[in-house]
Amino acid sequence: MAETFDAVIVGGGAAGLMCALTAGQRGRRVLVIEHANKVGKKILMSGGGRCNFTNTGTTPANYLSANPHFCKSALARYTPWDFIAMVERHRIAYHEKELGQLFCDESSKLIVKMLVDECMAAGVRINTGCSIERIVRGEGDSGFRVHTTQGAVSSASLVVASGGLSIPSMGASGFGYELARGYGHTVLPTRAGLVPLTLSGKHQERLQDLSGVALPVTASCNGRSFSNQLLITHRGVSGPSILQISSYWQPGDDLRLDLLPGRDAMDWLLTQQRERPAAELKTVLGDAMPKRFAQRLCELWLSNKPMKQYNAPELKQLAATLSAWPLVASGTEGYRTAEVTLGGVDTDEVSSSTMMSKRVPGLYFIGEVIDVTGWLGGYNFQWAWASGHAAGVAV
């Protein structure tokens, strides 16, 4: 006789654990099935091991989705402050790094321990090292029978919290997408998000020996701009500004970098010309950005001569290049290093208030498997908490 639960949750990551503890606190019998040997692996590695667990500035505008309105309901009903209250209740010390990003002072292990402790207190069962072999839907509206490597269980509700395709070395797979398709759901095309960009050919040759050089930029593409650090790598470019814009960029799209962020390039050049007429452009730029990068710009993109020798049209051309320097990327580093997966289960077929499928009663989708993707900086964890909570109060 298969053991019976009110809810079986597939995936013991951020969204799955949040859903489990929320449902468990309502007195529901909950089972979490995790195929890895421990839960919360992506939480453990996030934020350099300190877990950027939320962002105090979270709004629906910080998310990408084919339906930008879908995330509003869940985010409004479980806010960053709700999660912070749980963190403080467990006496986990944290700090704000920048732009509303909250990190643990010590270790991301404390966040996983908090979630597991909450699950245990709520009577949730967690089966790790457990893989799903097949799922059979009951007759009519009578729930699901889940066959696993640790036996079969029955459940009225099945919650898919299996994540996306990002970081396969952590066990990511397309399981959730396949399950969704099997139940007649549309899965929107997926691609790597929050991911370094690669360069090729002469574009890579021009920069690769500058690997390790970092500078502040404003990266712009398709009407979106992000100001933060750029890091040159052996294979291309990374850093927060590039990871952010990568979610809006696709091969062939025009990508521009403002190399003097926060300054009017023309005003700045005129000031330099007036105050340092004998200084060469590469010297002047070397005071505003890393010297090696300034030198390379002057070798390949800009003419280098003393500031006093530039006429007005030349200065105008310099300003245009510095404020919108074209970066021709060829691709991304892919799911191997991507922090998130863009696309996923079509939100048009899921209830925005409960996360339940509009096609199959009792089937829920939460977290990264849905077509909702946050910016860099704690927004994806906040979506995990909010969507997990929304399903947890409904199952």
From TrEMBL:
Matching Pfam families: HI0933_like, HI0933_like_1st
Cofactor(s) needed by this chain: FAD
Domain RsdA/BaiN/AoA(So)-like insert residues, every copy: 191-340
SUPFAM superfamilies: FAD/NAD(P)-binding domain, HI0933 insert domain-like
RsdA/BaiN/AoA(So)-like Rossmann fold-like domain: residues covered: 6-393
UniProt-listed InterPro entries: BaiN-like, BaiN-like_dom_sf, FAD/NAD-bd_sf, RsdA/BaiN/AoA(So)-like_dom, RsdA/BaiN/AoA(So)_Rossmann
Protein name according to UniProt: NAD(FAD)-utilizing dehydrogenase
Keyword annotations from UniProtKB, A to Z: FAD, Flavoprotein
Species of origin: Lysobacter capsici AZ78
Gene3D superfamilies: FAD/NAD(P)-binding domain, HI0933 insert domain-like, Translation factors
Superkingdom: Bacteria
